[in-house]
Write a structure and sequence with these properties.
The protein is mainly α and 93 residues long. Strands 1-2 form a two-stranded antiparallel ribbon. The radius of gyration is 16 Å and the shape is elongated. Bound molecules: zinc ion.
């Protein structure tokens, strides 16, 4: 999860400081360091900036692929074997 300090952290898209009372969102971290949009992940941004961003669709696709990679991982299979299937997995599929 991105660390956001209102009044300090800058929006990854417009570069302005995220202020209290503003709608703020963040993207989850991704493992693909070579991705051209990597710097926008695990970072905070204005919800409005994100909604108006022309890469929004692309980013949503990347998040989906990253989630799938995680679900397909041996680690995830091991966790399901130990603790059962998480609720969010059903909601996602
Ligand atoms: Zn912004």
């Amino acid at each position: 999860m991105a660390l956001i300090i209102l009044g300090v952290t800058k929006c990854a898209l417009c570069g302005k400081t995220l202020q209290e009372g503003e709608k703020v969102t963040s993207l989850p971290p991704i493992g693909d360091l070579q991705n051209s949009l990597y710097k926008y992940f695990d970072a905070g941004m204005h919800t409005q900036c994100f909604d108006n961003w022309d890469k929004k669709e692309e980013v949503s696709g990347i998040i989906k692929i990253e989630k799938q990679k995680f679900i397909d991982s041996d680690y995830f299979k091991e966790m399901i074997a130990k603790f059962g299937k998480p609720k969010w997995l059903d909601e996602m599929q």
